[in-house]
Amino acid sequence: MTGEAGEFSARWSGARGRVLAVLAVVVAGVMAFHRGVPNGVGRVGSLLESFLPWVGVIVVLLLVLALVRRSAVALVAVLLPVGVWVHLFGGLLLPGAESGGRELVVVQHNVSDENRDPAATARALIEAGGDLVALEELVVPQLSAYENALAADYPHHVVRGTVGLWSKYPLSGERGVDIRPPGIAEGWSRGVRAVVDSPYGGVAAYVAHLPSVRVGAGGLASERRDASAELLGHTIAAESVDTVILLGDLNGAVEDRGLAPLTSRLNVAERGFAFSFPAALPLARIDQVMARSATVGHIRTLPATGSDHLPVVARVVLG
């Protein structure tokens, strides 16, 4: 009987090892081919891509279970999702390259229309030492507080609707950018463009705040966000200035296919996760810095302000 029990236990342990191996292969496949996950119903594909780096938690759990079960099959299989995760996100963990001189430091922050201390928020952003500061959810009377606090360090600025750009260098060609998707009433203004006269030449800087997305029983509601991204992508594609920097609360991760009209045209950050939302427990970076004819180096978050977003700061190396 003892022998039979041991044989049964071994078979059961082997079966569980094979189950873990199958799960590991499935997880690897989902990560590697996430673009193949359907997006027609509930935008499941976009929802997965919004939190894709966190699939690494599942990979770690599978690795621990494989070690506990002492299953060689499972351990070998888990190496597959480990490799896929490292391929997709491992580079973000590497340290940023040393400054090459031709760079702009940019700060991006959704300051929240419910921020109770805009002056303190502005001071925190100034301490980051950015050349450009992009803000969203600017509302009266908070706007004047930001203008007053930032004026000394950033003498040049432009505001259109609820978004604004502050710069250490002169601005020209300021104009609003219409990214209003169908179904949103007139007066909704969340895009601005200006040319920055930087020491390295003109840079077209865009600040945008795409519509919010919601996660519910029906999945991810991102239709308006996606339509707004499409409009912004077309505008940037037609930009006559070669070097472009986009800063904004885009309400989406760079892996999210809903931002493809932008990520297909612009470079995204090469180093750093910089999860920025929600500030209390950051799970995703929806505050983005992207560029054309320039490289977005290391991106990182700053300490929390009075907003529900964390500020992000990035180094943009110009070509």
Folded structure, characterized:
With 319 residues, this protein is an alpha+beta fold. 34% of the residues lie in helices and 25% in strands. The chain is built from eight helices and 13 strands. The chain has helices at residues 2-32, 44-50, 55-69, 72-89, 118-126, 142-150, 223-237, 260-263, and strands at residues 103-110, 132-136, 156-160, 163-167, 171-176, 191-198, 201-209, 214-216, 219-221, 244-249, 287-292, 294-301, 312-318. The protein has a six-stranded mixed beta sheet, with no helix packed on it. A five-stranded mixed beta sheet has the order 5-6-7-10-11, with no helix packed on it. The chain has a two-stranded antiparallel sheet with strand order 8-9. It starts with a helix and ends with a strand.
The stretches of 5 or more residues where confidence is low (pLDDT under 50) are: none
Overall radius of gyration: 23 Å
- How would you sum up the major sheet? 6 strands, mixed
Strand content: 15-25%
Strand order of the largest sheet: 3-4-2-1-13-12
List how many beta strands DSSP finds: 13
How far from one another are the termini?
75 Å
Structural class from helices and strands? alpha+beta
The quaternary organization reads as single chain
Number of helices: 8
Features:
5-stranded mixed β-sheet; 6-stranded mixed β-sheet; 319 residues; 25% strand
Short description:
This protein is α+β, with helices and mostly antiparallel strands.
Chart the SSEs and their pairings.
Elements: H1 2-32, H2 44-50, H3 55-69, H4 72-89, E1 103-110, H5 118-126, E2 132-136, H6 142-150, E3 156-160, E4 163-167, E5 171-176, E6 191-198, E7 201-209, E8 214-216, E9 219-221, H7 223-237, E10 244-249, H8 260-263, E11 287-292, E12 294-301, E13 312-318
Parallel strand pairs: 1-2, 7-10
Antiparallel strand pairs: 1-13, 2-4, 3-4, 5-6, 6-7, 8-9, 10-11, 12-13
